[in-house]
Write a structure and sequence with these properties.
Helix content: 55-70%
Radius of gyration: 25 Å
Distance between the termini: 49 Å
Strand content: under 5%
Order of helices and strands: HHHHHHHHHHHHHHHHHHHHHHHH
Number of helices: 24
Number of strands: 0
Largest sheet: none
Length: 574
Amino acid sequence: MSFFATQANADDTGQQDFSSSIRSALIALPFLFPIAAGPSVSVWQQLASWLCVAALFLLSRAKDFKPAPSTTLWLIASVVLIAIFRSAHLGPAPWLSSITVVFAIGMAAFMGAGLAKDRAQVQTALAQGLLWAGVVSAVIGLLQYYDLAGFLWPWATEPGAGQAFGNLRQRNQFASLISMALIAALWLYARYRIGPLQRRLLWAGMVSLLLVAAAASTSRTGLLEVLSIVGVAAFIARRERQARRADPASAIRLPAPLILLSWIPLYFAIAWLLPQLAGSGVDSMMQRLSAGAPVGHSRLILWGNVLALISEHPWAGWGWGELSYAHYMHSTLYPGARFVEILDNAHNLPLHLAVELGIPAATLICGGFLWLLITAKPWRERDPFRLMAWGLLGVIVLHSLLEYPLWYGPFQLVFGLCLGVLWPAADRRDSEVRRWTRKLPAASAAVLIAIVGYAGWDYIRISQIYLPRDERLPAYQDDTLAKVQSSWLFSNQVDFAKLTLTSVTSANAAEMHALATRILHFSPEPRVIVKLIESAELLGYKAEARTEAERFSIAFPLQYELWIEARPIDSSAP
């Protein structure tokens, strides 16, 4: 049973408590999942997240599946628009993956609608799952920060001193998890009024650990999230105390506003202290705030480039999944500075939707979500559980304006749960609806599990070509490429491997040119560009070769110089 439990839930049965613990574990697991292998490192985390969604769905009661029609329609509209504006060059994988993501988010929204009306202990599972995910990740992150995480392999990575990101492999995602864990800790404090001294000390210790981890992340997005959480929590705490003065029976749930506000100077003190203890060569948060992004990496440059791309195709966009291709093809046309990395996401969700789907589709999706927000009137919210959901949603939305957390399974799960909690449908008594919903958990979970099973099997197969021969499965040690050509879900990864492993000759120049032209939409990187230029030259396409060489020199100047000097541009080919 939870250490936060009080007499209010002391009569819960052992079975209910076990079920709640399982739910908490399933919510935490996607954030802690350690496996990252193959050509796309986030695939296993995504599949594990979908499995957790399916398991949580099976644990939910059929009568709880009552999402608001407006939420369901918004999700369906998003899927339809992605399918309409899918890329013709990338095959079915990108848009089918996106449809599965929205399907899983919808399942999580069904569960969230049940949470909104369920027992307090079931609601607690969400908070405890996020809190434990945050606490465990904080411990891993601090070990990583001080370069002490080697003994945790393969259950955690070892990125080197000064870097902390747990198993999320990205500092901003790690910081957002820590922020959501802080919100969960505040709700648990409000829910159980953390009475005895030992519970208060344990809660304070967890909050302190989370603040240390947030500072260790050196994430500016995380700092903005912490400031927002503290500010809103202090406002709510002050409002509670004002209500108590007017009505002595009014409840005070949160710590005093000054205690909450003290988290801010504590955060900055920790941010100063951590690099002092780590030694030289470790960047601090203060350095990141003062120095800003490296030259050519700023979000302002990135967003300026994206706006230029939107102006080229404002109505229908460049196609779902085509931003990296558009950024490369536009290399010679930007009026100002160019973002120097391969740009596969706009680092701002509305801009990303606009550049890939077009302004009208982006307006429909973002406008629909904004309408949901306005009609829900979050500024009037008083229910503690819904306030927690608003906080979690706020973290994800804020992060989505600066990056792309919704491209990753753990955040999709929490986002879907928040949609259901905040926009549940009205109760219905129709017996036919109840009969239909009884079949929903098993059927939906079976579909998602089947998708995960097939995708996992196919991904294991195609990953063999990216491994040394002696590390491959026995059946795939010889003629590996030929044996995985049948994959359609990961055909882009297979074709990329084929392209990089095959030398361009006069005999295969036409085939390689067609393959390189298509793979350029999937991954416009130096190895692909070189194959395209070499095949174009052999086919006599001199103008095309010159144009691609000019783009190459602008997009990847270092690799271009190596290529001109006939030196290897990349030693990491499969």
